[in-house]
Design a protein that fits this description.
Length: 212
């Protein structure tokens, strides 16, 4: 026969009191309040690095597409109050050049109405994401662009009256703020690399000093 524990007169099973529950809730709230900024910063950094990685991949893709399609592949950037964006598209030089596509119109519409433009990819980064993509120069223009040479994969300027010409490099910054910034540096050969601008505290290697 199993033994039973003697009951203490007047005793009852005891749970948490309301005061104890409130104390636990208060402690949890304090911990969450302290952890929230760190979690938010972590999410921002993951988004930032994702945009940077996609940009480098897209530049490599544009270069390879120029060679495989045997046509100039152009990349155009645009920054507005609502977003940062860029478009990859084929753009053979013809007289009466139609100008750049407009990535702010969204994927599938960036080159709408242009007879000599074929949109390949459009990427938009909303301002609300806290990440900005911006060409380094010239900083005072609404958009800027460059192209990839189908023969060599090297960099080309925007077409002018005599057609596109080779350029030395093209640089695009992806950043959250001055300290959290990375640069995609595309050399004359068309190959992109990732580096850290002077103001940034990111762990990547420092960008080379551009020669005048």
């Amino acid at each position: 026969m199993a033994a039973t524990m003697p009951q203490v007169p007047g005793s009852q099973p005891r749970g948490f009191t309301l005061v104890e529950l409130m104390a636990v809730v208060a402690v949890v709230a304090v911990i969450l309040a302290l952890a929230a900024p760190s979690l938010s910063r972590l999410i921002e950094m993951q988004r930032f690095r994702g945009v940077q990685a996609q940009l480098v991949t897209d530049m490599q893709f544009a270069r390879s597409e120029a060679i495989s399609r045997n046509t100039v592949m152009r990349v155009d950037f645009r920054n507005t109050l609502e977003l940062s964006c860029y478009t990859l598209y084929t753009a053979p030089f013809v007289q009466g050049d139609e100008g750049p596509c407009d990535c702010s119109r969204g994927a599938g519409n960036a080159c709408a109405g242009m007879a000599n433009r074929t949109e390949i990819r459009t990427v938009q980064i909303p301002t609300g994401s806290a990440v900005t993509v911006r060409p380094v120069e010239p900083p005072d223009q609404v958009f800027t662009s460059f192209g990839f040479d189908p023969a060599t994969g090297g960099l080309l300027s925007n077409p002018n009256d005599v057609g596109p010409t080779a350029i030395d490099d093209f640089r695009i910054d992806v950043f959250l703020d001055a300290q959290r910034k990375l640069r995609t540096w595309i050399e004359r050969s068309g190959r992109p690399m990732t580096c850290r601008p002077a103001s940034s505290t990111m762990p990547e290697a420092a960008c080379p000093i551009r020669q005048p």
